[in-house]
Specification:
By secondary structure, the chain is mostly helical. The chain contains five helices and no strands.
Length: 92
Amino acid sequence: MTSNGADLIGLKNLGMASVNILHAVGINSYQDLSDVGAVEAYCRIKSRGIHVSKVMLYALQGALMDVHWNDLSPELKAQLVEEAEQNKAGIN
């Protein structure tokens, strides 16, 4: 598979800027994103000092599920945020 991000750009919620951010943290394909998951991808982005909001976390999860990020349930959004906060706490 090529690493030009063509399969990432075809995913819901991901534009070129998001794809470029994913490339910066070593995620170059849908499979890479699927392997690490939305929370780990988001935490990698944040750990690099790249300023993104929680919407990026939701967008990554939505991309994996093929749904618009705004259609994720409030419960799932809360779970994602909690996992990201736990991941961050484990890094420090």
